[in-house]
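Translate sequence into structure tokens.
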Amino acid sequence: MSLEALLSKAWQVRCEHWPPVLDACYPVGTLPISVTGEACALNCAHCGGRYLRGMRPLDGVFQVRQLSVLISGGCDARGRVPVWLYRERLAELVRGKRSNWHLGLVSEAELAAVGDLLDVVSLDFVGDEQTIREVYGLAATVADYEEAYRACSRWAMVVPHITIGLRGGRLGHERAALERLRGLGPRRLVFLVFIPTAGTRFGHLAPPRVEEVAELLAEARLLFPEAFLQLGCMRPQGEYRLRLDRLAVEAGVNSVVNPAAELKEHCAALGLRWRESFECCVFSPQEG
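Result follows.
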């Protein structure tokens, strides 16, 4: 099927299941906190700890003025973000705030220490073992990611995040991840796009073609007609973002984080009402 035909089918499904609203998310009202500072045991090929630098280290946070918090950090050698080690401090910070947590491949035992603090869990979901080994250097399996999803779901809503082009811009794990997730029934899905980042092992590579990303988003809309689909904050800037954002809306996504400035006009042409929100995208309202 051509991309044009696929987008047309996805748009029809979106119109049948969702009101004509595009949620433009500007997450300035959420404070991102790293419990490990800039430290991460994995040194992943696409990140190398670079993205932890954009978060506030936990030991430097004394008061949260924002509406909500993102609790994240680097992983240990088993792919877990060790939030349970900071239970008391985190309990103070999230009190009265909505909280989104990156936990990684946690078990029931670790969840028991922090489960009562969770509002939302964002889980990076990977669809094949080759990608897990190549990018993260973990001996984990897809079944481990499924188990982490199920375990976290017993405490909070889980929002899977799928990075398109995770293997250095090459597609591979994404469709397998979508198929695995169909059996888990997520209410939301967030899609990210690989960004070549200087100083990482994948820094010299290119992101996936915009058309490849749009095709995958359209397939996701067909597979998950009743899930709230979101194009997340991690994706390339510039002309790439402008082209992708337009196609993503046509593919039926419900929400775009930090959208290209020109997207509002495109949405109006498609008959979509523009609605803005100002916290982490997992808190975006799903109703019309």
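Note: The longest strand covers residues 157-164.
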